[in-house]
Write a structure and sequence with these properties.
Function: The SMN complex catalyzes the assembly of small nuclear ribonucleoproteins (snRNPs), the building blocks of the spliceosome, and thereby plays an important role in the splicing of cellular pre-mRNAs.
Subcellular location: Cytoplasm
Oligomer: single chain
Order of helices and strands: HHHHHHHH
Protein name: Gem-associated protein 2
Number of strands: 0
Strand content: under 5%
Distance between the termini: 65 Å
Shape: elongated
Pfam families: SIP1
Organism: Euphydryas editha (Edith's checkerspot)
Helix content: 40-55%
């Protein structure tokens, strides 16, 4: 069947002396005069062409980077990530179990978030100044409850997890994190909202690196170190495999 549609092809003639493949899309009559305020389509096109001629075809950055301070960089410097001793490194099977269990907890939290009308009254009563460190630490001395974390918005979740990571700086070499602090970290991770923004990702990576650092100070020859490494391995596993920071994985 023969189509009735007409095709119009633009004939392009290349100039061998020109080093440009740019060709005009519209032809403007030579009688068109450049006006301050165009009144026709051709006058408007002529004005656009004249304004474009004021700029170079290829733009380049002319900033003098030598004026930057020596301690400034356009790149973010990654902190080192301590590797696990062979006898403290978790198996991939163990890590898969942790990710599966954590996924179930996250699913439960998601269902709770979708039913705010059914929340108990104490969920929405937690109010903290994000910069009040003593208030945060006072909260973390209590037993962690889902009602204390579920009502926090993303920025507060990030801030709480950031402070929990800073608390890990107090862990002495050869020791592991406090059980209650570990429960709080797990609760904050379970309530962290997707999709992750860059700040949240940075906090999660800092947590994994801090846990790896604490683990690196455990005595691999001490039988109790295997138990001490468990919570550290869990958080490294969740950050790397659930939150997809795979370069930090064991």
């Amino acid at each position: 069947m023969k189509s009735n549609k007409k095709c119009f092809h633009k004939k392009v003639k290349f100039d061998g002396d020109s080093d440009s493949l740019l060709t005009p899309c519209f032809q403007i009559n030579s009688d068109v005069v450049l006006k301050e305020i165009p009144t026709t389509g051709e006058e408007y096109l002529l004005r656009v062409i004249k304004e474009r001629e004021k700029f170079s075809t290829v733009s380049k950055c002319d900033k003098d980077f030598s004026k930057f301070a020596k301690n400034q960089s356009c790149f973010v410097e990654e902190l080192p990530h301590s590797k696990a001793p062979d006898n403290l490194r978790p198996t991939i099977e163990w890590q898969n179990i942790q990710v599966a269990d954590f996924s179930d907890v996250r699913m439960y939290v998601s269902r709770m978030l979708s039913k705010k009308a059914l929340w108990p009254d104490d969920v929405l009563k937690l109010e903290l100044n994000p910069n009040n460190i003593p208030a945060w630490k006072n909260l973390f001395e209590k037993d962690p409850k889902l009602s204390c974390v579920l009502g926090l918005h993303s920025a507060m979740l990030d801030r709480g997890l950031e402070i929990l990571t800073e608390i890990l700086d107090d862990v002495k070499p050869g020791s592991t994190l406090d059980h209650k602090i570990g429960q709080w970290i797990y609760a904050f991770l379970a309530c962290t909202r997707p999709p992750l923004i860059s700040d949240t990702t940075s906090i999660l990576r800092n947590l994994a690196r801090k846990c790896a650092e604490i683990r690196s100070h455990l005595d691999p020859d001490d039988e109790s170190s295997k138990t001490a490494a468990v919570p550290l391995n869990i958080f490294i596993c969740l950050v790397s495999r659930y939150f997809r920071q795979y370069d930090l994985a064991d």
